[in-house]
User: Fold this.
Amino acid sequence: MRRIVSILLLVIVAFGISLSLAKIPFGTLKTKVGRHYINEGVKETGATNIVTSVVVSYRGFDTLGEVTVLFIAAIGLGAVLTTSRKEKIRKIEPASLILSTGCRLLFPLILVFGTYVFIHGHLTPGGGFQGGAIIASGFLLIYLGCRERRISRTASNLAESLGGLIFVVIGLLGLVFGGYFLLNFLPKGTANALFSAGVIPIIYIAIGFKVGSELASIIDNLIEES
Amino acid sequence: MIFVFFLILLMLIAAIAASIFRDLISAVIATALVSLIAAILFYLLQAPDVAMAEAAIGAALTTAIFIIAIRRTKRYEE
Assistant:
């Protein structure tokens, strides 16, 4: 009986949601601000990837908040997991030859790809978050394949702190030069060139380092404790 | 078009399977499949930025974190 009632309730809710969603036209530009980003985005920010120009330039302050949320999550996880850390000597079972060789071969390629994604964030799809996640998945592969290898805590903390610091300092420099936070104060250059779009590539490289080292240290914390 | 419907059907099956499985490792793999198909669909809907994030975080990192957590707890649900 309860099951029938819950299924009925689910059907009613789904019907209501689909009815309200059916009214919204998809694929058309309804809002003025979206049309402005598409038409003027390249001219105003110099970044050919519209998504990047929105994420880093128009809505850069939101991105700073997003990065902060990830930072707090990583710190919280580290604080919870490292309280019970003991120097216990565990026997690490080595992975099979095929797995470890494959990991060693693939790891530099994944790193290069992740770096490519966040350096070209203003030209091609992707950016700091995506590149950082790709780099962290490369570190995950190393943890699975070569279990005796560990990333250095100091290096990852340094990359994380430097990334956050560069982001905030560039934002404050915009405040100094032009009067508002995260102003694009560098020359925009020609669109489609690697050195273009002013501060956007610098910020995305900083975000890439920050996100990559944060996610890698989260995985490191979790694996260390298991 | 048929390909897209096939993908959506596969995604639905994987999502239902993830909630039914008693073996939690299988459930996590089914969740990863949902993420992977979501990434393909994002790519087909011309959102490559979201697709990359979904593939890297949803399919790779979340799965790894879940599996590490399951290794510390129980594998089978009662």
